[in-house]
UniProtKB/TrEMBL annotation:
Key words, A-Z: Membrane, Signal, Transmembrane, Transmembrane helix
Pfam families listed in its UniProt record: WSC
InterPro entries: Immunoregulatory_rcpt-like (IPR051694), WSC_carb-bd (IPR002889)
Record localization: Membrane
Source species of the chain: Xylaria hypoxylon
Source taxon at top rank: Eukaryota
Source organism phylogeny: Eukaryota, Fungi, Dikarya, Ascomycota, Pezizomycotina
GO cellular component, one term: membrane
Domain called WSC: residue spans: 39-127
Bilayer topology annotation: Single-pass membrane protein
Signal peptide start-end: 1-20
Positions of transmembrane segments: 184-208
The protein's name in its UniProt record: WSC domain-containing protein
Biased composition (Low complexity): 139-160
Keyword set includes Membrane: yes
Length: 278
């Protein structure tokens, strides 16, 4: 045996001893094996499930429980994580392959075997086909995590803004105060303007009314004076009296006119002395 072979055997022995010492013989991940048609083999420990979906959960879950059920459903790939059994059509991308020590959770149905680990899955080739396609690298996990972090930060910021907004909204801003002041000033100006316009209109109305009454009184006095001058008497009192009529409307004078004793072209506004034979 060559020195290299001896060293390799020694390393395997150390690794086996380390696994046994750390895991106490439980939850040991079986190294990857060559796929065999019709029989399930371990493909490795992966951080991704590719296109695999949950088939069932069982308290007796193990490689011997999960892989045959995936094979019976014509699924070439299976995976275990504690009590969960997954099945799919593609192997996880090779970049998601982890060290075997990452899969260290004992299977509930057979604890010497590993059924995944922290963010890790034990993947099998179920033997439906030897050559199985490999899934493309899934970047949605990191993208989703980043988006979730951004959403959480945004939500926290929004919550902070929501909490502080009511307190700030209670304080009237300078613009609001100025607009309120301007509105009140405009309203007061409109009211004052209306009152002034009403006062001017009222004053003009009373002035015109008084002037009209004065004109009527002046015309009445002038007519009274003219009538008094014509009749030769005193003007009537302003307290009210019979208006002076034209003397030509006197019935006596009318009778004389009808008798033809006095000419019609004479001025009868004055009394005419008559000489009669006694």
């Amino acid at each position: 045996m060559s020195l290299r072979q001896i060293a390799a055997v020694a390393l395997l022995a150390v690794a086996s001893f380390t696994n046994a010492a750390t895991s106490d013989g439980k939850g040991v991940q079986t190294p990857a094996e060559q796929a065999v048609y019709g029989s399930d083999t371990v493909a490795g420990c992966f951080s991704s499930l590719a296109d695999m979906e949950l088939l069932t959960t069982d308290k007796f879950n193990s490689q011997g429980f999960c892989a045959p059920r995936c094979r019976n459903n014509s699924m070439p790939v299976g995976a275990t994580y504690l009590k969960a059994c997954y099945c799919g059509t593609k192997l996880p991308n090779a970049k998601t392959l982890l060290k075997d020590t990452k899969c260290n959770e004992p299977c509930p149905g057979y604890d010497p075997e590993a059924c995944g680990g922290l963010n890790a899955y034990t993947v099998y080739n179920t033997g439906v086909q030897v050559q199985v396609a490999e899934a493309e690298l899934d970047t949605t996990s990191s993208t989703t995590t980043t988006a979730a972090s951004s959403t959480t930060s945004t939500s926290q910021t929004s919550a902070t803004n929501v909490q502080t907004t009511p307190a700030e909204s209670q304080k009237p801003s300078e613009d609001d105060s100025g607009s309120k002041t301007n509105t009140v000033g405009i309203a007061v100006g409109v009211v004052v303007g209306v009152l002034v316009a009403a006062a001017i209109a009222g004053g003009a109305f009373f002035y015109l009314r008084k002037k009209r009454n004065s004109d009527m009184e002046e015309e009445h006095r002038r007519n009274a004076a003219v009538n008094a001058f014509i009749s030769g008497g005193k003007p009537p009192r302003s307290s009210g009296g019979a208006s002076i009529a034209d003397s030509r409307m006197d019935p006596v004078m009318n009778r004389r006119m009808s008798d033809g004793s006095i000419a019609d072209n004479q001025d009868y506004s004055r009394r005419i002395l008559r000489v009669t034979n006694a």
